[in-house]
User: Fold these one by one.
Assistant:
Number 1:
Amino acid sequence: MRFVLVLAVAALGVWLWLVLFPSPEKVIARQFEKLAQAASVRPGEGFLPRMAGAQRVGGFFSTNVEINIDLPGLQQHDTMSRDDIVQKMMGANLAGGLKVKFPDINVTVDADKATAQADITVKARIPGEQDMMVQAMKFTLRKTGGKWLITRVQTVRTLS
Amino acid sequence: MGMIDHDPPNARPGRARPGGWLRIAVFGRNPKVTLARVVILVVTCVVVFKFVLLPIRVEGVSMLPAYNDKSVNFVNRLAYLRHEPRRGDVVGLRLGGTNVFYRAPGVMYMKRIVGLPGETVAFADGHLLINGAALDEPYEKGPCNWNFAPVTVGSNQYFVVGDNRSMPRDYHVFGKARKEQIVGKVLF
């Protein structure tokens, strides 16, 4: 009985440790979940919450973000500022709003512990489109001021 | 000398006490055995449906008419333990990341294998050509006018495409997939 109690206390301790001091991988994965929430517009959501959501999205990106998008009908290879991203999000939210999910998030923190790569499957419903868009993407993040910020966004070709 | 009867007047041998039938129905005659059965059932379900047969819901029209939008199916992750993927197999493909067995993907592409390693695949006026010869595809029903220059499938690759070729080629995801991307074979 005492052994079981000791095991239970040890398990609780480990669980508390993991909750209070999550690994960088876990922190980044949670951050992407928050990004998906901020980028998504809920049905019936008003103008102000939509704009606030777009502003929150900007907070996940660094001041300048390298964009490498290669999709049928959309090619973009340039650098965008955080304000550009917020403006784009506002435009999308006014046009009906996105619905974004990240069903698969695989994070790898580099040896320097200051940069990380996130391989993510993006599932998004775009206004005016009937089907959900599903796309593999790679995000590069850098730890700045204690926060992981996205510095690079690129699409990944699933099939060559 | 009178006998003392502790049982209530309506208690009869071989019959459960009032309320006892509910307890038997829920917990069984031997609760410990029932608990063990429940634990085994839950563990079996978790292992089977998380690691062996992944339940999936089809979204989209790229596999019509064989697989309808919003239909339910399973991906058998053990299908290719004994043999390599074959032509005509419908498979679940991982989009990104690595194929880690304990981490099942949340989203997969569902495609049919048409080209095997080392073969040349092309489309000419809607006909799928394997090494220059047209492939008989009974699952492909709609009209198709695709044209696609020949590509050679690598040694560790498979050429995959959806069944619904009546949709525009630009909106259809197809091409060469690495073997590691194949999560498993679609069951039904």
Number 2:
Amino acid sequence: MQIRKKGKKGLPPVSTASLPDIVFMLLFFFMVTTVMRETELKVEHIIPKAKEVAKLERKSLVAYMHIGPPIKTLKKVMGTEPRLQLEDAFASPKDIIGWVEEVRANTDEAEVPLLTWSMKVDTKTKMGIVVDCKQELRKANALKINYSSTKIIDKSKL
Amino acid sequence: MARKKRELQEINAGSMADIAFLLLIFFLVTTTMDVDTGLMRVLPPPIDPTTPPPPPVNKRNVFVVLANAADNLLVEDEYMQVEDLKEAAKEFIVGYPGNLGDERFPEFKVVGDEPEKHAVIIKYFGANQKISKQIVSLQNDRGTSYELYVAIQDQLAQAYSEVRNEVAMNRFGESYDDLKANSKKSKEDKEKAKAVRMLIPQRISEAEPKEIGGAIN
């Protein structure tokens, strides 16, 4: 009795009918998790590392200030000294008060006290410009600040 | 001309996968998965010239950390490396409640003196607990590098966090970090965490900028 026929019998082709479903699943995942970059960075910064960092929970309630040397393509025009960037443009620390007001005006009134002012500063920057910015923030009564830094993973605890 | 009703032809869905792939790749490329983290601090409110200046703080209660333009550290009048700052700060934060005559450590106040204000502490730790009057004062020069500044802030935060963890561990058998992590679920843990926080308050003062010396810009 011979059940299986001897001879060449190719494997049936794998059905690709569920491929679109899988791809759609992945697509939706990335669509949901994606946050589009709102501002174009005009300064370079390497963020410092620290251990005791806290997560910034609500991104819509965080306003960013970038401080660092201008990017390569702008070095010829702007020089290499660390500069402050607010939104899309270079600014001087004097502009911070106006910017703070603008951000507050664009935020829901009930949530204004929850705003966090995050400073993304290059590690090589001198504190001078950072201190100026902090003083301006104080004048604008924007006191909840965040020194943006990435977490060091403590290997001894693993 | 009479025509027979024809059934609609089905749309070919074969290219659906291609379209989805295209979109998928677009989102894959644009996605940035970074979570924003950082050191949270609260700046002191702006100085109002009409209000009288606050009473001076007793010198022994202040732990002075100076950072100059050459990125050198002077902690309580002693030269120090950043890595050693945590231990020194911890020692100061814990203090020496047994011997109040020791001028190197800060003064203490007894919780029981203001029972309403410290109700949470009394509930979990008892009325004879003492709160240190410590303040850590961080002063930097305009020429100090941001890297060092953040490193100092981090060391100080670590010192506070470790002291809190030890206190919570001794009292509750759970670290402060765990209490904080559970505080969303358990109201008791939230209160415990609050008690620890009130017993060891984090007081890092970022002083007005000063020219400490050796300034470059």
